[in-house]
Amino acid sequence: MALLIDPAHVQRARAYAPFTAFVGGFVFDILTLRGPLNWLNLGALGAYALLVSVLLILQARGAFEKWSKWLSYATQFGLGALFSAMVVLYFKSSHQLFSFLFVMILFCGMVANEFLHKDKRLREIIWGIYAVSLAMLLNFVIPYALDSVRPVYFYLSTAMALGLVVVVWLLAGRIKQLLRGPLISVGILVGVYAIGLIPPVPLVMKNGLVCTDFIKAEYSCAPDAQGFSQKLGAAPVVTKDSGDAVYVLTAVAAPKGAHAVLEHRWFQEVEGSWQARDVMTFEIKGGRKDGWRFWSRKRYARPGYWKVETALKGGNVLGVQKIKVEEPRDEAKKSRQLL
């Protein structure tokens, strides 16, 4: 008995193949690229960027026409892998809504163009994602090479990335429409950095703990046992007696040899708004494998919601740790953890 295949289903599958390849590269990279931020990982990402650059040039010039579809799938798979790595590195510590929205806008743009079958518009989006990914990569590479976290290097590395995109565009045949996506996407990236929605890369917040019984000698504390809602991202609960202090421990990764002044900004939620309470500053020097560690405390933290921002002094936020302070109802089970 012959197997009948609906041509409409085949056409629909072909339409979604490029987007599927992009998502496949995104997932593949999340599952395989692990470990600390170092030159080895940055080199692997650089190899991704070089591969995608070559594929974009070949695709734009119509090379290997017989294999054009496979070139397209390979391009989007590599681009998805590169983009996912940079999103994870960029926003792993920020816990900001922008990171999620930024990815979803790009994804929705690709899906919308698959529905509308606007191939030219889809290529603009692909080049826009490519430009943003390259800028994100150099935002890490340049500060690491110079052992500095000065904000000026964000703008310098972004300008260098845009210059490289222009070189690739020239090699690809100077198709005017392909340059519009990179200019718009990189412009948005610079704009959101300028207003503080992007963490001060290449600083990365690696870990954080909150507790009431911090032991400085071993840099450990025993946080309260957390329920299901905390595992889903709700603010962790800290139970404290009236005389206990609430401690916040933070580990931040930085380029070897780099110096920076960071701060913990304490806020309390009062009638639905966050009120500033304290600011503690710390001077760090990068290079420690598990991140530079520092801590601050709030001795008279009243019951309710608090948050602590880890930020560059007077600058952008690396990460936010939210806390729900409660008075103890019974003996909570705790297990000591090292930062």
From TrEMBL:
Keyword hit for Zinc-finger: no
Transmembrane residue ranges: 15-33, 39-58, 70-91, 97-116, 125-146, 152-171, 183-205
Domain DUF2914, chain residue ranges per copy: 263-322
This protein's record includes keyword NAD: no
One Pfam family linked to the record: DUF2914
Top-rank lineage group of the source organism: Bacteria
Keyword list, A-Z: Membrane, Transmembrane, Transmembrane helix
InterPro entries according to UniProt: DUF2914
Protein name: DUF2914 domain-containing protein
